[in-house]
Specification:
Blueprint: H1 13-17, E1 25-27, H2 30-39, E2 43-48, H3 53-63, H4 66-75, E3 77-82, H5 87-101, E4 108-112, E5 118-122, H6 136-149, H7 151-167, H8 181-192, H9 209-222, H10 225-240, E6 254-255, E7 263-264, E8 267-268, H11 269-285, H12 289-305, E9 315-316, E10 319-320, E11 323-324, H13 332-339, H14 341-351, H15 374-391, E12 399-400, E13 403-404, H16 405-421, H17 425-441, E14 443-444, E15 447-448, E16 451-452, H18 463-480, H19 483-500, H20 533-548, H21 551-570, H22 576-586, E17 590-595, H23 600-605, E18 614-619, E19 642-647, E20 650-651, H24 658-667
Parallel strand pairs: 1-3, 2-3, 17-18
Antiparallel strand pairs: 2-4, 4-5, 6-7, 8-9, 9-12, 10-11, 13-16, 14-15, 17-19, 19-20
Helix pairs in contact: 4-6, 5-7, 9-10, 9-11, 9-22, 10-11, 11-12, 11-16, 13-14, 16-17, 16-18, 17-18, 18-19, 18-20, 20-21, 20-22
Length: 668
């Protein structure tokens, strides 16, 4: 018998996955809360996302089970939320879960009142009591009894939980960062660094790319080789491991072991976007071999995850045909079937494809403990297309084709950085198409929304969304020097500050001041899988101030930093994304204004290199709108392209010779 519930009219792939469960699911809506109030029932709130492995497990065990559905339908109103579609809802109830249990994750399972007040939370629950875990059916029965018999205790508990969560957004008095807080973060990362396999800590290991971007900047500022050695070892080991898809490109979410061999096979676009940036920067600072890895990530993103209108999808599942990793693993006979015996044998030897396998009887291709020669690389590049074509005949993992604002903003940033550092106009073209997609499809009445799938998703964008679009527009301007992208960047910054600034001057709220669907407004400050919106905003509006001379942006960046400073000083490695702004504040903060004229291309070629502490703008003929953006417009000298260099140490005399410009930039 096929069931259909109220999720059937939703756009989210995750919600649609549950539209035929026997559970009478509602989307997050006033209708659901009114129904709960009218029937005097508690609410079961289940939050997850389409590529979440344990979400699928709980669905198979419980939500597709008619016995469990009967308990839910009789005693609860059940709500299903896509965490990527409604990140502020997810953030608040994840805070509840970690407060109550000391841990979090997905699926997130919360029980709340019809006033949206939480009183019980957890993550995955098995259907019945097992392995020392309380079963979901037991929990449902107990909560139903407590709701009827001890409701006052539940309400009191929910009030106490909300009070605790609310207090957590108050960071105490604003203060300054400790002078050596970035050094402390560097030392803490050094202590947790895995010298054998790279990365930080033991298993499971996540890319945590913002740690690597912080270390690159720390090295460039303080010339401590240990910092760049950690980056080199980590990026090299990740690429050699099974966490990288050697056949199709792109990285999986994380490694279940310390040597990066066995991944959790889902592929998230945000990981891949961040890693494009890390490998491009490493190609400049460490070794140009990393450029090739960056290109392979981009090829995966463009070929597998790009919408025909220029937007990028969200994720690919870990499972196919109900089995995790099935799409990605091989046996020796499969390799030989695709490549032939001789070439197949060589590929198996090179990429560790063995009879016994390294993952549930099959093999994840990897280069761990292998020294790959140039000849090996040429051979592998020859084999990859054949193996890719062979693999494409398999049932592919599910693809979440939501077009999220945050992810697309990040992809604009990563493609812009790649286009600039790799000197590839194709990547810049992709970045501009994605930026236009954001402008044309992800905004309504001058308000960004969380995403798009067939039509604009209904949820207003968060400060994280705004921050990543801000970053994208900034990097697109730095890569193209087209005024329209700087204008977009400034507008996004101004709207972000209007909507999200804490009235007490302590960073940015996650929800806008025009959103009223939660009992409290939370803040995303810690850097998790991605740097928080507060971290990205502090960095980019600081650079925007440097670029334009507008002090309000510098003041806003300082407000974010000082508002969170107590937490940063106490636990600096949780804020490495934001500490990039601290490093920027300690740098020379170079700004180069090229007023165009004769030989402008030669001038621009010398300012297009990688320096994360330098901003560049082009003004002059054809760029008159820039005069309204920057604080002190300049003119060229004798119709020659003229460079005006300013830093924290003051401004230099104008330069009209590009060789002199090159030497001056080297000296700073």
């Amino acid at each position: 018998m096929e069931y259909t519930n109220k999720l059937i009219n939703e756009k989210s792939p995750y919600l649609l996955q549950h539209a035929h469960n026997p559970v009478n699911w509602y989307p997050w809506s006033s209708e659901a809360f009114e129904e709960a109030k009218n029937k005097d029932l508690p609410i079961f709130l289940s939050i997850g996302y389409s590529s979440c492995h344990w979400c699928h497990v709980m669905e198979r065990e419980s939500f597709e089970d008619t016995q469990v559905a009967e308990l839910l339908n009789k005693n609860f109103i059940s709500l299903k939320v896509d965490r990527e579609e409604m990140p502020d809802i997810d953030h608040m109830f994840m805070d509840v879960c970690t407060t109550l249990t000391g841990k979090g994750g997905w699926p997130l399972s919360c029980f709340i009142t019809y006033d949206k007040k939480p009183f019980f939370a957890g993550t995955y629950f098995p259907k019945i009591d097992s392995y020392g875990m309380t079963g979901f059916t037991t929990i449902l029965k107990n909560i139903s009894i407590n709701w009827k018999q001890d409701r006052e205790d539940l309400i009191q508990a929910s009030d106490e939980i909300l009070e605790h969560i609310s207090q957590a957004t108050n960071f105490g008095e604003n203060t300054s960062l400790n002078k050596d807080v970035s050094k402390t973060a560097f030392e803490q990362l050094s202590k947790s660094f895995d010298k054998k396999y790279g990365g930080f800590g033991s298993s499971p290991k996540f890319p945590t790319t913002h740690n690597l971007l912080f270390l690159i900047r720390y090295y460039l500022l303080y010339k401590d080789k240990t910092a760049i050695d950690m980056v080199d070892k980590t990026l090299d080991s990740m690429y050699k491991g099974g966490i990288f898809d050697h056949i199709g490109g792109g990285f999986c979410r994380y490694s279940t072991d310390k040597q990066w061999l066995v991944p959790h096979f889902e592929k998230m676009m945000y990981d891949n976007a961040m890693l494009i940036i890390a490998y491009c920067e490493a190609g400049i600072v460490i070794d140009n071999k990393y450029f090739e890895i960056a290109k392979r990530i981009i090829n995966y993103c463009v070929n597998e995850m790009r919408d025909e209108n220029g937007g990028f999808y969200t994720a690919q599942d870990a499972d196919s045909e109900g089995v995790e990793g099935k799409f990605y693993v091989f046996t020796p006979s499969e390799i030989k079937e695709a490549l032939g015996d001789i070439e197949g044998e060589r590929f198996c030897t090179l990429f560790d494809i063995t009879k016994n396998g390294n993952f549930e009887g099959k093999s994840i291709p990897n280069l761990i403990n292998k020294t790959q020669t140039g000849e090996d690389s040429i051979f592998a590049d020859f084999c990859f297309p054949k193996l890719y074509e062979y693999r494409q005949k398999r049932v592919p993992p599910f693809k979440d084709d939501k077009l999220l604002t945050q992810i697309n903003g990040l992809m604009v940033a990563s493609l812009s950085i790649a286009g600039r550092l790799l000197n590839d106009d194709k990547y810049l073209s992709y970045a501009e198409e994605t930026a236009l997609f954001i402008i044309e499809n992800l905004s309504l009445n001058d308000r960004l929304y969380t995403g798009f799938r067939g039509e604009l998703l209904k949820h207003p964008a968060t400060s994280d969304d705004y921050a990543y679009v801000l970053w994208g527009m900034f990097e697109l301007y730095q890569a193209t020097l087209k005024p329209k992208w700087l204008q977009q960047c400034i507008h996004i910054a101004e709207r972000m500050l209007e909507l999200f600034v804490d009235e007490n001057g302590q960073g940015l709220y996650l929800s806008g001041n025009d959103v009223e669907h939660l009992p409290i407004r939370g803040k995303n400050t810690f850097d998790g899988a991605l740097p928080s919106g507060n971290s990205i905003s502090a960095n980019i509006i600081l650079k925007l101030s440097q670029l334009t001379g507008n002090e309000k942006f510098a003041n806003a960046s300082n407000m974010i930093i000082s508002g969170i400073a107590n937490d940063i000083n106490g636990y600096p490695t949780a804020f490495t994304g934001l500490l990039c702004a601290d490093l920027h504040n300690h740098s020379n903060q170079i700004n180069v204004n090229i007023v165009n004229g004769e030989q402008v291309e030669s001038m621009l070629s010398y300012v297009n290199n990688f320096n994360p502490f330098m901003t560049v703008l082009e003004t002059g003929i054809g760029y008159e709108e820039m005069n309204e953006i920057i604080s002190e417009p300049q003119k060229n000298i004798d119709n020659k392209a003229t460079a005006f260099i300013c830093s924290k140490n003051g401004c230099m005399p104008p330069i009209t010779d590009f060789i002199e410009l090159k030497e001056k930039l080297k000296s700073l």
